Amino acid sequence: MTRLTRFVITSVIVILMLAISLIGTIAQGTAQVRFVHVLPDAVPVDVYINGTVTAQSLDYGTTTGYITVPAGDHIVTATVAGLASPLWEQSVTVADTSETTFIVSDTANPQFEAFTDNLDSIAFGTSRLAVIHALSGGPDVTVQLAEAIELGSEVQDAGTTIVPELVYGAKFGEFDLPAQTYTVDVLPVGSSDVVLGSVPLGLTSNTSVMAVVYGTVDAPQALLLTARTTPAEDTGLVRFVHGVVGGPTVNVLVNDTVIAPNLTPNTPSEHIALPAGDHDVVFVDAESGDELGASKITVGDAPAQSVIALLVDGELAIETVTDDISVVNATSAGANVINTIDGASVEVTLPDGTAIDSTDAVAFDAVAGSTSFTLTIDDEEGTLDGGEFVFYGGMYYNIIVLDGSTFGAPSLVVAPSTIAQTLESAPDADTSSLIVGDPAPPAEPAQAETEAPVATEAPVQQVVAPAEDVIIGEITALDPSANLNIRQFPDAQAFNLGQAPAGAALTIIGREGAPVALVEGDPPPPEADTFVDPVLDLGEGQDLDPTQTWVRVIYDTPDGGQIEGWVLSQFLTIRDDEGLIDLRDLETAPGNVPGETRNTDVTPPPPPEDIVTAEVINLNVDAGLNIRRAPDANSEVLSQITVGTVVELEGLLVSSTGFLEDSEWAFITYSPAEGGVITGWVSTNFLQYRLNGELTDITELVAEGLIDETLEDETGEVNASAAPVTASTPDPQVDAYVAEVILNEGANLNLRRDPSVQAEVLQGIPAGTFLIVTARTADSEWLQTSYEGDTGWITSQVVSVTFNGEFVSDLSEIPVDTTVGASSDVAPETTETP
Question: Minimal CA–CA distance to 205: which of 183, 235, 248, 234?
Fold first, then answer.
């Protein structure tokens, strides 16, 4: 297999660096602002200033660069990315020549809180540090050195306090420090427990760094917000790039002074100001201090340049390229390509079709969308997906192409630098899509409730003005192309009566309440006596959890009928004619009263009676489980179904052992939401089973005679009204690393957000589950996988890994995820029982 072929068949790693600021002299009457989204569990947002979209698809844990705005008062509005209804809206005031960072982190009161920055000029070789406590629900904290560090001629021991006490929503600092890496621990005040341990703060020369501690107590994280300080006269801008995949972390020294610490191939430095003239540049191993390569550079011949360490004929070389920032203006971006793959040529295609194939700068209009890049190696060419990006005007982008590893594909690192970003710089920066209204609470991310979303014509986004005493729920926290399921009962496994598109307005009847008698004269069911309204457990100012609160709604269907049923409130913005309404203030509706359809083509379901269904599990959210015509991995693919889809289970193919419960193939009936019926064979490794909506297993179904043997010559088919699959996709287990959870029955394996026993538990994965492994940590202690829509990490100690049915004894065959650090020092957990 050629190197290029190996690259093409592997997923592309795309990493977008934090935006950084290269602000020149600030004009009179302007200010600089940036926005940081660290609101736990919230969806990506768009940010508007005075009705003009300023930041698009700002994801959790990311920041914008500094944006030039007029000094004075502004209206800032945040919406779900791609939608129009406000999540919240607020007034802000920024002073002339000021720099302000706006951070949203408080789930109880989502608003951008203002933190002033200080970009005043700083001495060569030093950096300015401030620490911000944005850990939602976290205690007051102190910050200490986790490792000893040398400051000047003195050594500061581990345990030295650098931030004595910091309350939530507060900032400590600024103070100027030598540019180097400071490893710190974050602890509750007065306690030796560690909230967030061994956080590396890499402080780059001539920058201001805000270290933001954010997330939740169960999943704390740190984010470094870096901006260049005001340059002295007669300086030039230089970025340092570590382009050797698999090489050690490096520090960059200029004239024997650390300038850019802690560089990896995925984290190039910012453009920083260096004095004009000649300089000695040395790349050294950050751990050992050994010199890896050296060169001389001249600053002053070009306004900006990048210095790259890369391999040429197997030897480390240091090269310099010019970054022509003169092509950038408020609405136009500039970019070049830095190719670190020896012997390859590369061309990157931007979302608007612009092609860039060299270090020469190319100008293009602001644009958002997918990128790709084409590699040519030894006259062999292949194209890879580059990922989704938003390219803003006023920005210069170094697009760095990194080599692949043995099992990994080449990757793009997009390193942006702010030159002249303004309110005009975002793609399609206009006010036509924004509807200003009462601020709304943050939306929770769409979960599996959007199972098998159906592509629909994008609805007109509008905020409905409710009639008096009518409560409206607008579907906001949902992908614009997806539909929300309306259930017969307040349960995610209840029958789906129909779907309403994103943006639709639903009439709210009430939240789930105590059950009632369904037949006049009968007593209420026993559950009515034990029902406790969850509102009674709330404190002052608290509201119900939208991810757990079902509301009864009425949806007026396009054909003139109605669907009345239950939806999760996490997908709705709820308001009446006076504004937003808390969930706790809704009237209750009996939870045992079934929903129904009226005068619409959707017919109510019959009462369930020994209905056996199967739900698709263990797949990535963007993958599909193949429905095949025959029980054979090479058979024709009739359709695909996504994780969370529920199908009717018709039968199983008896395995070679003669037992149904050992079957590898199930015959199912699938009714797509767009209509029609598809029957066929699917792999049982990606199914869990239900009897009348309740979880069960094959053994029980076989014992009760509810599952029959299906003949091998039974063939699947697509009826005339169902759309067949447009393109076949590979079987998920072919050419993939598959891990089986080897635990005692009833035990669960934790799926964690990060490869550490201290990381948040996302799911409990039952024994016997098969999982697709996509990556590992360098020490092979943790494996990356996805389960029921969540991507995370599992310990490798209690799984058996195979590749195309062959046992994998050496986990080093699995590609390493270089974006994560080493595994936790704590020995990985083994099992966790329910």
Answer: 235
Which tokens in the block code for residue 279?
A: 């300089």
Q: Which two tokens stand for residue 800?
A: 């058996």
Secondary structure (DSSP) of 435-482: ---S--PPPPPP-GGG-S----PPPPP----PPTT--EEEE-SS-TT-
Provide the whole-model pTM: 0.55
Q: How many helices (H) and strands (E) does the chain have?
A: 3, 64
Pairing outcome for strands 272-275 and 806-807: unpaired
What's the pLDDT score for residue 171? 94
CA distances from 102 to 306, 444, 761 (A): 30, 21, 30
**Strand pairing class (171-178; 126-136):** antiparallel
Tell me the pLDDT tens digit for each residue of 469-503: 689 988 875 555 567 888 888 987 777 788 888 77
Sorted by sequence, the CB contacts under 8 Å of residue 727 that are 6+ apart come out as: none
The DSSP bridge partners found for residue 679 are 669, 717
* pLDDT at 145 exceeding the cut of 50: yes
| Interatomic CA distance for residues 157 and 164, integer angstroms | 16
Q: Which residue intervals of 680-775 are DSSP H helices? A: 698-703
pLDDT in tens, 693-731: 678 888 888 878 888 787 777 888 876 445 444 433 445
- Beta-carbon contacts of residue 689 (< 8 Å; ≥ 6 apart): 612, 613, 614, 615, 649, 695, 696, 697, 698, 701
Distances (CA, A) of 591 to 498, 553, 684, 763: 18, 12, 34, 27
Which residues of 687-807 form beta strands (DSSP E)? 687-691, 694-696, 717-718, 737-741, 748-752, 761-766, 770-776, 782-787, 790-795, 799-803, 806-807
- Going by the DSSP 8-state scheme, the letter that residue 37 receives in this structure is E
Q: Which residue in the block uniquely carries the two structure tokens 């986790």?
A: 146
470 near 507, Cβ under 8 Å?
Answer: yes
Specify whether the CB–CB gap between 747 and 831 falls below 8 A. Answer: yes
CB 814 within 8 A of CB 783: yes
Rounded-to-integer distance, Cα 431 and Cα 382, Å:
40
SS3 568: strand
List for the chain the helix, strand, coil content (%; round to 5).
5, 45, 50
Mean pLDDT computed over 272-289: 93
Strand ranges in 286-379 using DSSP code E only, listed in sequence order: 291-299, 304-312, 315-322, 332-339, 344-349, 355-356, 362-365, 367-377
